[in-house]
Design goal:
By secondary structure, the chain is an all-alpha fold. The protein has helices at residues 3-24, 30-51, 56-114, 117-152, 155-171, 173-182, 189-227, 233-243, 249-266, 269-299, 303-344, 347-350. The longest helix has 59 residues, at 56-114. The two termini are 49 Å apart.
Amino acid sequence: MKAPVYRATLWLGLAALAILALFLLEGILMPFAVSFVLAYLLVPFVDRLETWRIRRAISSLVVLTLFLFALGLVLLLIVPLLEAQILALIGVLPRLLSVIQNEFGKAIHLLQQHFPKGDVEKMRDLVGAKLAGVIGWVGGLFQSMITSSFAILNIVFLVVVTPVVTYFLLRDWHVMLAQIDAHLPRQPLDTIHAEARIVAETLAGFLHGQAFVCLILAAYYTGALSLAGLDSALAVGILIGVLAIIPVVGVAIGFALSIGLAALQYGTWTSVFVVCGIFLFGQMVEANILTPKLVGDRIHLHPVWVIFAVLAGGRLFGLLGVLLAVPAAAVIGVLVRFALDRYRQSEFYAGPARERLPEKSE
């Protein structure tokens, strides 16, 4: 077997094994994925302390402790503010669903007065099927959260396992990278290093950019909905900011929830139009400024591919797939661009180089 074919077969085999492992171990991967992300974000701070001649183990412990303390402080400040609004929001949801059902029934009755009964029934069945599909997908996602993520990321995993795994990753980060590097093939090592740097820069750009987008959206929707007088504006704004890590889905859920709350609270079309205007402006800014500048330019992915990646990740791996879909798509994009670049440089694309005929001497 020729060397290029052998290498291609080897890499394809490793990729197949990785995908199989994801399928088999999906239920226990969430805390380790969270630990890896935390370690990836905190490693630069540990490296900085290590340059000050502080031992790696101590630096890792100090950085992780400060991070957990800051996280706990934020939760202590936010949770009391959110508690009352979340309880009010939960109490409103049954009433909101009842109103939606009644309005849908009125709309069907109105259509029956102007259109043939058979057409209205077909339309009702079509809308019902589509809504059932959407509700089923969202319900499956939340069921995955409850049955897998919450079942595993319980108090023990949140308080003990994730910080412990994060600490060991921080402490042994460069050792693990050196071990991986030692087993890489020597001939294409420079190419692997170059592509790994691009992948690292892409992931760092995505994480930092997406974090800024989430914070800005949470602040904007909280402030705008509060100025509009909407109850539970803080809870809805933070919900949108948190769910913004899932493109389209987070804002869509926040929009539907805000429209329903405005309709229940005020009962006028004016309030509904105000909320629509808030979300329309927010989406225009996010789609044309925030996401392209802070995220899109760093991961080099078209929005259509981002949406496809999220849906595919949710279909294949549930909540874990949804959370990791965009960074995974960004990494795959780097590898695909590298493969296409090599393809365009190959004889298969350009054809064999023609030998230049010697010039005739006069």
